[in-house]
Amino acid sequence: MPKRLIPLITSQIYHIYNRSIDGIPIFSNKKTVNRTLDAIKYYKLIDTPVKLSYFLHWPADKKNNFNKESITKNKNYITLFAYCLMPNHFHLLLRQERDNGISKFMSNIQNSITRYVNSATKRKGHIFQGQFKSVLIESNEQLLHVSRYIHLNPFNSYIVKNIESLEKFMWSSLYEYLNGDAQLCNTKLILSNFKDPQNYWKFIKDQSDYQRKLESIKHLILG
């Protein structure tokens, strides 16, 4: 993998994204999405004893013990703040917790997704467009705008018909923010800027304001 022009720095937050080669569908069904979320949860940990495909077949008590031990050790490559899985691309908002943590985490999950999709579709080769893209988050304002951009992706791409339907879209972290059910994400950092989750939802729904600002903040979102 070629060396990055801009290094990924520990304790810094980044918008990470990538898309499929030739627009091939990746996150197009519930099984692949769930497998990807399993990969994110598993590979954000530093001490993973086996590949995810083996881990998922461990007995339930053994998996539970490993998960409890991992929580106690609190040794993660990254902290995830937001995500969205679209049919042919993904967005992650995360903080690097260890040197080279993002690169190791992304290598693991992209390889895991590639193996799974190739096996399921009986294809071979890469499915992502090379090296993932990264944009450094340099201010709290940028953090909030990028989180909104990520959560609005299904609406802006017409995957959901209206803004109200976005609240029920299950392939992003918005559900975790609005329902207090944080499974993968640390929601506290972003929600600390709002009175309550409903105020964050209002910020998300403020589409006219978002459209007005989109061009002026595009460089903050996609580099």
Automatic annotation (TrEMBL):
Cross-referenced SMART domains: Y1_Tnp
Pfam families on file: Y1_Tnp (PF01797)
Gene Ontology terms describing biological process: DNA transposition
PANTHER family noted in UniProt: TRANSPOSASE IS200-LIKE DOMAIN-CONTAINING PROTEIN, TRANSPOSASE, Y1_TNP DOMAIN-CONTAINING
The protein's name in its UniProt record: Transposase IS200-like domain-containing protein
GO molecular function: DNA binding; transposase activity
Signal peptide: none
SUPFAM superfamilies in the record: Transposase IS200-like (SSF143422)
Residue ranges of domain Transposase IS200-like in the record: 9-153
UniProt organism field: Candidatus Gottesmanbacteria bacterium RIFCSPHIGHO2_01_FULL_40_15
